[in-house]
Design brief:
Helix 3 links the parallel strand 2 and strand 3. The chain starts with 6 loop residues before the first helix and ends with a strand. The protein has 5 helices and 5 strands. Helix content is 43%, strand content 15%. 30% of the residues are buried. Strands 2-3-1-4-5 form a 5-stranded parallel beta sheet, with helices on both faces. Helix 3 crosses helix 4 and helix 4 crosses helix 5. With 142 residues, it is α/β, with parallel strands linked by helices.
């Protein structure tokens, strides 16, 4: 789909659907964006579907522990993939603790891109769990 065609709105609707399926249980998702500026823009777009208090932009000043804490108090965090890679390395956060991960601008992924590192962690967690534990919904937005 071309720019401005509503891909972010579709991602928000999908997340809202999966939140509703949780039947009152806490919904936790990450929306990964290549730049901090896009985090703000995509968070604003999600306000069409979610209440603002469910959403949190993660800026570069936030440390990894505060990111984990924000995930406990908010439904969807908007952050750069490198912030997530750092958080996975330095905290006890597991991708399988999440319900959904949205990869924005997924077509820019290259060999050593943080998106590839995140998916490597995902597959390692999947293998360690014997492949039986259901992981988060993975959405790639191109």
């Amino acid at each position: 789909m071309r720019t401005g065609a509503g891909k972010t709105l579709i991602a928000a609707i999908i997340c809202k659907y999966w939140q509703a399926k949780r039947c009152g249980e806490k919904f936790k998702a990450l929306f990964l964006v290549p730049t901090r500026h896009l985090a703000e823009q995509q968070c604003l777009a999600f306000e069409n579907v979610f209440v603002r208090t469910d959403l949190q932009e993660i800026d570069e000043s936030m440390n990894e522990r505060s990111i984990v804490h924000s995930l406990q108090t908010n439904s969807i965090l908007f952050l750069t993939p490198q912030k997530l890679v750092n958080t996975l390395k330095t905290t006890n956060l597991k991708l399988f603790d999440l319900n959904a991960i949205v990869f924005d601008e997924a077509h820019h992924t290259a060999d050593d891109h943080p998106y590839n590192k995140i998916m490597s962690v995902y597959f390692n967690e999947k293998r360690a769990g014997g492949g039986l534990k259901r992981g988060p919904l993975i959405l790639g937005k191109f």
